[in-house]
Amino acid sequence: MQWKKIRHASFCCITVNQNRSMMIRKYPLEWLDALILRNLVQNRNIINITEQELAMICDAIQKEALNIEIQIKDEVFATTKKSEVRLLIRKYHSYFIFLIDKIAENRKNDRYKTKSILQISQTIVDTLSNLLSFIETRFDEYLSLDQRVPLTYLQVSRRELMLRLRNIKKIECDITEDCKTLDLIIDSFNQHFQSRNAPKSTYRLLRYQKNLLHLIEKFNFERKDGNFFSLLDEKLINLNFNSADYYSYIITRIAAHLTAKNQKSGKLAFLLIVFKELNQIESSEKICFDPGQSNIKVSVTNWIKYETQYIEKSIELNIGQKEMTVSKEELQHDLLKEKVECILSTDQIGLILRAGDESRILKAKSMNQVFKSIVPYLSTSQKRDLSYKSMRSKSYTAEERDKEIAIKTLERIIKHIQQY
Question: Which of 289, 307, 335 is the last residue in one of the domains?
């Protein structure tokens, strides 16, 4: 291994890897380890280095990171057992985090307030973060992604995410719904970062957040005419961006379209179209933005189903009420058609009905009930619709002539019965 010294007179202890051996080194982090744990803390001469030397050191750090990345690939390629690869990857992953933690701890030292050390330490943190991202992306199957992220690494990662969120906020978007969705994504991230009740930050969740922001940064905002869900919606549903605010936003948009439609049939047709669109979008069940919330596609689908059922029941009830109304009208119409015409007058009919009640031939709760039950089905040659109340009242004040006609009518009935 050949090493080239980067020095300005007194700065002779910081060395840079010049030529990389094709053989796998026993400890590939030796140079970074020495720089972080020893030189930045103990070497007094590093404070007084020139701008040129500072640039060379930062460049050497990035080159060393590239060598480490190649070293990891070589070691994985040379290992045949999956268990050994898992151990190797987790070892690198945990030590990168350890070095980031040491940088954070050392920053409490006054030496880290100087420009040179501050810039070198930040370059190291950025480089180690990239190495972590490389491992988490390339060898995620060997990592335990549900472990809690160490606080220092989490702070570094969130600073990166916050910077990317600020850049996303500057994205120009011509689609009104997508602009609101971008604002909602930013708010959801901020709420997650600030909430004390937010789920614990695991490597899986952190990787999800990074991937989501990367997708938005590279996203081509295009309008998808004729569809309720935009291309951005499709991507977010695909990634299971199950933020409670995003779910509420989608439901609010659907409800607004329903309110604008007057006919229930139109509402139902719209819901069926949205349901069809949603059903054609794939949504991951393995990843999510908020582990405490249900899958975004499942939640929206359930809401649409319940709303559809409600409208269908409402339509059925309306039809039932109309049918009941029609039935009553038809019944009344039939009653009018099936009235029995009597040759007697209203007063004469009333006398016979009163006599039938008082002689207990017709039995009902009251005389009023007798008249109410029979009179609507009768008519006279002079009047088609008879009032049972009026008939009952007149039965008490009938004239002698009406009595005679009623009696003669009953006698005619007797004669007919006798002839049977």
Answer: 335
Same domain, 188 and 123: no
| pLDDT score at 1 | 34
Helix (H, G, I), strand (E, B) or coil at 5: strand
- CA quadruple 103, 107, 110, 116: dihedral sign: positive
**Token code pair at residue 49:** 């280095």
What span, in angstroms and rounded, lies between the C-alpha atoms of 211 and 289? 11
Alpha-carbon distance 24 to 116, whole Å? 32
| Total residue length of the chain | 420
214 domain residue, yes or no: yes
Structural domain of residue 126, as residue ranges?
A: 1-143
Distance (Å, whole) CA 59 – CA 119: 12
Is 363 inside any structural domain? Answer: yes
Same domain, 345 and 329: no
- CB neighbours of residue 300 within 10 Å: 24
Can you tell me which residue has the tokens 């509420």?
248
Last residue of a domain, one of 317, 335, 353: 335
Residue pair 393/346 in contact by the 8 Å Cβ criterion: no
Residues 127 and 253 in one domain: no
> Does residue 160 lie in a domain region?
no
Which pLDDT belongs to residue 237?
Answer: 94
Tell me the pLDDT tens digit for each residue of 319-333: 656 545 555 555 455
| Contact by Cβ (8 Å): 43, 14 | yes
Q: What is the pLDDT of residues 226-261, one digit of tens each?
A: 788 988 999 999 999 999 999 999 999 999 999 888
What contacts 15, CB < 8 A, 6 or more positions away? 3, 4, 5, 6, 31
In a domain, 167, yes or no: no
Q: Give the residue ranges of the chain where pLDDT is below 50.
A: 1-24, 323, 331, 335
**Same domain for 390 and 285:** no
Q: Is the CA virtual torsion 235, 238, 241, 247 positive or negative?
A: positive
Q: What is the DSSP letter of 276?
A: H
What's the angle, vertex CA 246, arms to CA 215 and CA 293, rounded to 5?
95
Same domain, 343 and 308: no
